[in-house]
Fold each of these.
Amino acid sequence: MPIRQLSESVVNRIAAGEVVERPASAVKELVENALDAGAHRIDVLTDGGGRRLIRVTDDGAGMTRADLALAVERHATSKLADDDLVSIRTLGFRGEALPSIGAVARLTMVTRHASEPHGWTIEVDAGTKSDVKPAPLNAGTRVEVRDLFYATPARLKFLKLDRTEAEVVREAVRRLAMSRPDVAFTLAGEERAPVTLPAALPGAAGRLARLGDVLGADFRANAVAIAAEREGIVIDGYAALPTLTRANALGQYLFVNGRPVRDKLLLGAVRAAYADYLPRDRHPLLALFVTLPAREVDVNVHPTKAEVRFRNAGLVRSLIVHALKSALARDGTRAASTGGTATIAAFRPAAAGTSRGWDWRRSPARPGGRFAQLPQRGFAEPAQAAFDTGMPAADVREAAHAAAETEGEVSAEALGHPLGAARAQVHETYIVAQTRDGLVIVDQHAAHERIVYEKIKAALEKSGVARQILLIPEIVELDEADVERLVARADELARYGLALEAFGLGAVALRETPSLLGEIDGSGLVRDLAEHMSEWDETLPLERRLMAVASSMACHGSVRAGRRLKPEEMNALLREMESTPNSGQCNHGRPTYVELKLADIERLFGRR
């Protein structure tokens, strides 16, 4: 077939396929144009998920009559002062956005520039342009897109349900709203209730307020400030505590020079920074903003500008990892406030008629119940034994009185600590501590697991993990494949004080264990390591794989649930938690403690 020149209409539709994949793509392009025009307020209205109508109204600079006529021509833009495509300082610069939308839909633009006596309008219907005509408008620009893809019916078959497309539009607006907290946004349509995001104050407080409006109050309450700078590259934003996570990575928002992106390099850096805090099936919530000179990043490597390419990708990645790790280490002793909120909610009685919560009608003490028939006696009488649920596993009050003349002297000193003073151990698993303004419930195994893990890491950085030689080597029987994996990594395991060697075809001999773990179940530890190694991704860095070994060892070397602790052991554990980095969560991302404020407890009993 001979080569031929395509018609202008076909070229425009091909360009539309690159730029306008779905209604959300058109919304993104139009909102970016409004932001580049200096808008302070942007209103977005959709109908049919954007298929029937998209209307974007802004109060930006607007366009003159001549500019409006050029705006719908291909490769025409006001966002490039010269022909330098390397230094892009605007969100959008591709000239084919508006004409591409007009090639597959009915496009109407009304705009007014401050220098014009009135507004102007132009229409583009499936690529056919009308003349520029006068139109009423106070200021800014209003763009309407009707019957999207009506000129290319085949594209309509690939669109999802209206509700699904509306949700994608909502997500596109959310991303742009997070990047510009100084701009007010309104999103409305028949598919949803109107969403209004007022303009926030400048600075970090305004940014956190906007992120809280978009990501929710839980994110705002559990956000950690991120800040780092090196060689002209600035990283800032907010990340949630490791105890506030999601089952997918959709809660990770990344921006480069104000542009929302889904870049694999940046997402990989986030995973690396949280590798020491979260299991593989949990993902953090964060909003990171990368700012760097325009010439240091290429934003034109993807048709929708969803990905970017950095001149010095290694520096950007390392800076992100450093910034996140530093911030998480700084606030690592905090636990997510959602744990306390959920605990308080669990105490509240459910609504009448529901099957959840306490119901007086099911109580043995109700009128006619079996306890109601008991003779009326005092609380000191034997009848009260019916209500006795047993004593705590360990009670600190007696020991506290024995060590001091008055309970007030003990409380004055111990309650000054962040995690307070241990008062009891319940179910031989949880430590209940009293603070000045509430109480703390600690998971003793999770807390000690993090402490041991951090000790192993610290020992590695100094002189290595000290070993203790077993008097009699422990023989552990395994599958031959597991034995091969363990023996192949014997040198790596030796760095952590774990010395083992092959013992026949289907077993290994464990000869040395880390001394800081004390007496442990060596065979259980070896089996866990073999199981984890079978799932290792060999592309992971060696450090990540070794940290997984340390995590398994810490789990086996920590205080187990079900062990009764002495009062001094409980308080010692609380003090170690306060001085240990990242003690707010265990190695698996679970919280180590839950804090209940006295004010919340008083609300439960109607005191507030």
Amino acid sequence: MVELPVTDFVGIIGLMIVAAAVALLLLRRVAVPSIVVFIATGLLLGPVLGWIPMLPLGEPPEAGPKATVHLISHVGIALLLFVVGLELSLERIRDVGKVAVAAGIGQVVFTALGGFLIALLLGFDVMASIFLAVALTFSSTVVVVKLLDQKGELNSLYGRIAVGIFLVQDLVAIVILTFLVGLRGEEVAAAAVAMNLGAAFAGMALMLAAALLAARYLLRPVFDWVAQWPAAMLIWSLCWCFLFVVAARAIGLSEEIGAFLAGLSLAQLDCSHELRRRTHPLMSFFIAIFFISLGSGMEVGAVADQWREAVVLSLFVLIGNPFIFMFIIARCGYSEKTSFLTSVTVAQISEFSFIVIYAGLTAGLVDEQIVGLVAVVGLVTMAASSYMILYNRPLHEVCHRWGLLRMFNADAPEEQEPAPELHDHVIVVGMNPLGRRLVRDLHGLGESVLAVDTDPRKLSDLPCRTMVGNIDYPAMVDEVNMQDARLVISALQIEDTNRMLAWHCRQMQVPAVIHAFDQSVVEDLRQQGVAYLIDTRTEGRRQLETAIREMGANQG
């Protein structure tokens, strides 16, 4: 073993990030979730190699590098729950709310009961069994949303049902965290506990109401104004996040509850996609620190001694959870295929599982042995379920062929996925006066137009479909479905963005019309294969009408 002890703060953080980056690079082709990579990296750096000190999982150290790392990892958890909240748009799941509530609540009840009984049979005491049952109940919003987005199936029927289920599960998790907050304190008398619980739930209800009212009446005009300066959106979203974190602490709740509710309120805005993209890089750094710290604090010997328990609990999550969901969703009138595809998305434990078990450790209700067991179950289920999601359709074919799904009696006819809303459309990027004029002209010609800009106010009165976002992001390129576009037009006067847009169009073989606002960029854009260059507004309209005619459009 190479001796490489690191004890100072900069050395610990640096080694964590370098090791995590190398691990992610090596495993990028096998689709292992980053959370799994981070926990395994911490386990390797701490207990196995001893390159960093084993960081405590419970109460933070009073001072020193370990205390600073502990603080950073705690910020990471708050940001993680902020991003989880940002993923949960109520608009996205409006049409599947009934099945989401039925499946979400039904699964929580049955999985919690099953997990509790299994934990008791494995020899754990009642309190440990309760926490293990709770940890097994929730599924990972971050892992599943990322994988479904990677597959392009986040807006499919089963994807919308899954997101709705996660919203229900996450709200239940917030209730459980609130309950744990109410149990804190030195008082053990029933009256004192009841008062603590009442105060905690009253505070949570107050913050939830504030979040929903702000989403409806306050945040939209504020963030529409902030969108004029896209670089400021990250600061303003973090300002809102930590405003709720501070408010949660002030009324005796946990920071995680405040961060989640702040994200949930912002998720209802038109610019939520842009906020997620800007927040993710910062969140990823802090989350890496938290999960590496979690792995570094695990006792290898204790984990090895519990391998049988880890196997049993992992199988319960990988098989039992989908079984419960399959039964409930089929009873809601969905087909076998939709029920199956939705069910396999939940075969892992959640970020909330780590947070709940961590809260139990901090409160002295469970020991580090339980935390290590949950971490191992998380490693196994997140890794295995990732492949179940990526290959869910072939997996369904195998299960259907072998008759493994007949017991669920999912006899409803298979649902037809709606045709893509964005197909054979014209994308216009940049709603300056030129872009707005082009949008109105194209709409008048009968074209299906998608207008894109970072400022929601510039999109508000246009006659076509609109989308708030920055086309510089690859995720935004996918979201506008550029590969199926009829034509892509940029009215922007941003040289780097226009070049990147031209490159994407050439790769996807989509005709591009780019605003050549400066003569110096003309030759470069021509080399990029741009079909038409707009050099003046008048010339731009003339060339655009020529392009539409050549493509066979009807001019009314």
Amino acid sequence: MSAEATNPEAAPTDVTVRRRGRARIDLRRLGRAALLNATAGPAPRDRLPDAISHVAEAHRAHHPEADLTVLGRAYVLAESSHRGQFRKSGEPYITHPLAVTLILAELGAETTTLTASLLHDTVEDTEVTLDQVRREFGDEVAYLVDGVTKVEKIDYGAAAEPETFRKMLVATGSDVRVMSIKLADRLHNMRTLGVMRPEKQARIAKVTRDVLIPLAERLGVQALKTELEDLVFAILHPEECETTRALIADNPGADDALGAVAEQVTAVLREAGIGAEVLVRPRHFVSVHRARLKRGELRGCDFGRLLVLVAEDADCYAVLGELHTCFTPVISEFKDFIAAPKFNLYQSLHTAIAAPDGAVAEVLIRTHRMHKVAEAGVVALGNPHVGQESDTAGSQADDGERVDPTRPGWLSRLLDWQQSAPDPDTFWTSLRADLAEDDEITVFRADGSAPGTISLPAGASCVDAAYAQHGEAAHTCLGARVNGRLAPLSTVLGDGDTVQLLLAQDAVSGPSPEWLDHARTPAARIAITGWLRAHPESAAPPAPTDPRPQVSVPADRRSGAELHADLDGEQPAAVRPAGCCTPVPPDEITGFRVRGGSVTVHRARCSAVDAMRGLGREPVTVRWGDTPQGRVTLVAESFGRPGLLADLTEAIATFGAAVVSANVEPPSEQRVRHTYTLHLPDVTGLAALMRAMRDVPGVYDVSRAHPSRGVS
């Protein structure tokens, strides 16, 4: 059996996760029902097996007219094929597909999804074949089961996990129900992770954090995302999770505080004649943790939000008007995700109001339909291959085929670039980086021959837009016009910008390694890296045949130190320190020619040096001049305490160093990371400065910054 399929059934993790909706069904009860069904023989044709009565009840709550016969047949096949298989807790294995199916049923999944969910491990872990599933349940169910079936580890070895995710994502491109089943499967496995070895718990939790939770966010399945976040939080950050649990336990009156505001809101809306349901929604663990980091000390109303549900879109704005009239609004908290829905289908009005007693409460305003989509995301859309009403399932294309609202944007972009990443490691790394992006922008193409829009992650540059629009033809891109003005390819684009990419007419030119500094999307980075590997001669000058005269040129003005480079006889060229490792005297250094003839200088042990050599780049001999000034980036690791920032700044000032920039990251496990970029009047004092910073109480390490990317 596969590793995940045999995850043990155990008590949940130590943290009790607060969830809304129906209580979790006791798996022991499901196990007993499964055993009773097995010993009692097949149920009558007109009666469902008792073990799936909870699934049937939840399914009928969303789909009253659903035909449950197929679910009964699927359960019978799943139970008989898994019979004799047990989880490590001793529970019959059938309790796992039953629990996964119940999760999806409660979210409102349609019958085909539930059928495939009951069968999702049969092909992987039993003698049942995909052809058998297809014969008995049809092509759609077979496609979904195949989509969530892992690739054989014996064939792929260490690459089995990334290749399994690649397979699932490609299948999701045609039917998002594949990923719905996978998310529910992972949620149940995370709920039952307790007795596994700590290192395996951590490994599974990290993949869940880096891949599954971002996918749940992008598919809009908030109900699954929030519980997955809490379960991962408990495993990877147990101390902070325990602190959050204690914080919630120490504030038992939080619901009462929100309840009082809810009563006031209800009275206001009733008086205005607006039919609405006002609910108190407690924050989940991770949400409370984030609120504490953002606001510091939390008050009663900070432990939850008010949810106002209405019938029509217009009612949402009517509620907003009443709230802003009768209460004091916190304008900075207002967001309109109805007029401008998020890329994951989410729609709501967000605001915050101050009650007469000074309590500030966040309020979410949405219709009942919006609420269903906000909680269940793509699960609420039903079958993507059957046309449905546009307000719940997208629109119809001119050829009658349904336009899936989740397919444009991030999913199409992911499916495109994964084809260019045949190496599993490249795919796995790029996938995690792509999913780490929290938001999406839309830019408008100004090319007369190809009008339209491009969806990109927030922070994307003209380089990303070029590869998103032109593919490998973007290798010849020379520049861009952004909002009608000429702009370098490094320009970061904003939502709603208009961009026109300028391509060379010849195919001789190609990307510079420096483009990697501006590429945010995996598609652009993979294409650029591939071109540079295929054309090493374009990134470095030919080997010299004549003695090399020494050319001395001043370094980039930001460095303050003079650099010398031994160049082939061309002309003096700019020599600058690399931003990734900020070399200063007396660091051992090496240089590389970059596009345009300039030389970038790295510390000899910078990881970018290995990357450059891997691309076939020949190093240039460089050395320091006599000017002992320079710029350096230092990272101070410390335990958080009051006054720490002031003490570190004072230690830096004592050495006459100028702070060019500083960044203090949010505390993690009571540890704080400070990053300073400094201009030193005399770099020979760098070691003494680092010692002085280490002597500051609470600081346990000070080091030079490491490069964040492989190539500079």
